[in-house]
C-alpha cells in the first residue's frame, strides 16, 4: 500500500490519479523504465498496488485534480522491488504441426505454438529437432522411438515475437522428435528457461494425407537405367543408376524380384539423393531386381527391372 499527504488545492472534491511504471531485471537501470500508466483514480489518499510481478522494479507518482485543474504529478517514488526471485516461464502452449508438405521441392513442416505465461519478458524460443528412427511404409509409431544418446539433436533460435517455425529438408518415411523451449531476458548473469513442449512428426508420406502444401512441383524421372556394376567387397555387388530430371531430392527404392530364390525375405531398401545418379548395394549375383526412382515432390515413380551379372562377368581384382 502507498499513501500520501492530502492535497491542499482548496475547496471542492479532489480526485487522485495514480500512475505506475516498471522495468524487468535484477539491477535497477532507470533508463529502462517503461512509460507511465494510470493504475487508478480515487478520492482516498492511499492505494493498494496489485498484480506486482517478481523480478521487476517499480515507481509510482500521484496527481491531485479538482474542478480547477491540477498542479501536475508528484515526484516519482523511490524505485522498489518485491525482493523475490522470478519463476521460470511456463512451457509453450499448444505445440502443433499446422501443415506439412513440399516447399520448393523440399519436404517441410510448419510448427505453431502459443506464447507461454512468463514473469520476465521472453527473449527468444529455442526449437530442437532430432531424426529418431526410419519407418517402413506399414509401420506404426513405436512406443518409445527416441533414445537421447542415439540421436543427433539440432536446434535453432526463434525471436520471441514469432510463434511459428518451418523445419526444412526432412527425410521421408521418418519420425522426428520436436521440442520448443521459451527463454527469458537475462536476470543478472542468467536467463530463465522453460520446460520443453514436445511433439512428433511422422513424414511417412504414403500414409499421411495432409501433405498438400500448395501445388507440388511436377518433376518426372526419365531415362532411368543401370550404367555399370562394380564390386566393393567379395560379397557385395553394387549397381550404378543414372537418370534425368529437374534438380530435386529423389527417393530410390530397390528390392529383389520374387523369382530370386537366393535372397531370403525379399528385403526392400530405400535411400534419398539430390544427384541424378545413385549406387545401390546389397545385391547378389545372377538375381533379378526391381528399382523405382521418383522426385519426393512428385508421387509418380519410374520403374525398371534388371538382372545382375554372374561374378566372373564383373571386372574386379577381387576373387569370385
Describe what you observe in this structure.
The protein is mainly β. It has 3 domains: 2-82, Sandwich (Immunoglobulin-like), CATH 2.60.40.10; 93-215, Immunoglobulins (Immunoglobulin-like, Sandwich), CATH 2.60.40.10; 222-313, Immunoglobulins (Immunoglobulin-like). Helix content is 0%, strand content 49%. It has strands at 2-3, 15-24, 37-42, 46-47, 56-66, 69-73, 80-81, 93-103, 106-114, 122-134, 153-159, 164-167, 174-187, 190-193, 197-202, 222-231, 237-244, 250-256, 269-273, 277-283, 288-295, 302-307. The strands form 6 sheets. Strands 2, 3, 5, 6 and 7 form a 5-stranded antiparallel sheet that branches. Strands 10, 11, 13, 14 and 15 form a 5-stranded antiparallel sheet that branches. Strand 5 (56-66) and strand 6 form a beta hairpin. The chain is rod-shaped and about 115 Å long. The termini are far apart. Residues 1-87 form the Fibronectin type-III domain. InterPro entries: Anosmin-1, FN3_dom, FN3_sf, Ig-like_fold. One of its GO terms (cellular component) is cell surface. It comes from Graphocephala atropunctata. It holds the Pfam family fn3.
